[in-house]
Amino acid sequence: MDKKDLRHQVRLMKRQFTKEQLLDMSQSVIHDLLVVPQVKQAHVILMYYSLDDEVNTHNAVDRLVGMGKIVLLPVVTNATDMELRCYTGPDDLRGGFFNIMEPVGKLYTDYSKIDVAVVPGMSFDLQGNRLGRGKGYYDRFLPLIPQAYKIGICFPFQKFPAIPVGQYDVKMDIVL
After folding, report:
1. Fewer CB near the terminus (10 Å): N or C of the chain?
2. Are 128 and 174 in contact (CB under 8 A)?
3. Global pTM exceeds 0.85
């Protein structure tokens, strides 16, 4: 199966669940994330503000801020790049393209200080390989933060024994 076919298959699988079921499945993934030692010890964490069909991170970003972490969220700036902005609470969010909530906090550029990157994906495999949505934003960005501990998060049905991998795909350190 190629990447395009796998993305299509995962989208179909996601549609089998209601928004409430996905939210319920998100709770155990987020619980597991928050007890990862690298997350507990991190000072600066790159997160993402989830879409409806992704592991819901909305409460997690607020919990991490409440724990005293510097939480960064990505903003897509053009067809190939994203930037990071600080998140301090829900007031930092505005509706962006396609009603995706985007942070409007302070621009963050000290990438060397990012301890952990929590990364969404369409699917992951047992070796830590990630299949994204196909635009390559994370695959271009993650090499800029080689020191960061990379955590892929997804629903259990998005994990496969093996997925197609390209030369620019960045492996995760763990997948939850």
Report:
1. N
2. yes
3. yes
